[in-house]
Amino acid sequence: MELKVFQRVMASNDAIANEYRAVLKKHNITVFNFMSAPGSGKTSLLEWTINEFKDKMRIAVIEGDIKGDLDAQRILKTGVPVYQINTDGACHLDAFMISQVLPKIDLNAFDVLFIENIGNLVCPAEFYIGADYNVMLLSTPEGSDKPTKYPLMFSRADVLLINKIDLIPYVNFNFEELTNSLNEIKPGLKILKISCKTGEGLKDWYQWLSYATNVNLVRP
Ligand code: MG
Ligand code: ZN
Fold it and tell me: Can you give the pTM of this predicted structure?
């Protein structure tokens, strides 16, 4: 009985997501859904990424938080528009929430939409929000065992950024354990090592993103 109810909720979620996704496609907007545990560096990655790309493409951001607008305030400083969703307790974004925000955004004015999901390794992976790409972050202090413990989240990732590689000397993070488990969960998943503290590795992420958005970077 409960399972049936859950499936019905999911079906309506996906129908809403597919509906606005078609509209976003019509406007040539590429949508990225950033997911990770709290504190992995989603907002820091967005700050770096927006500063790198804001002169090359028109970016809008949707910030998901249970409460408050601390991350939105940080993003606003980069100069791009930010639309805040407060879930008031819900630990994920769903398609209905996104559909409520989209009418506030002039879809002719943007090429890319970044959505920062609620920090959580569990249910954000269960709710399809119509993104073209799921970008997942795992920071080294969280440990290399996380794909084994939260396989659904990692199976939904289109690219995995291992953040805080500058902390590797101080934490137990075993890349072999990570790649072994990911070979089971999501074979071929693109893994990039980055530090949003030092900027190390971000060039590879920028390159991935520019391919994903079909933005032709100026060649030297
Ligand atoms: Mg954040
Ligand atoms: Zn949730």
Answer: 0.94
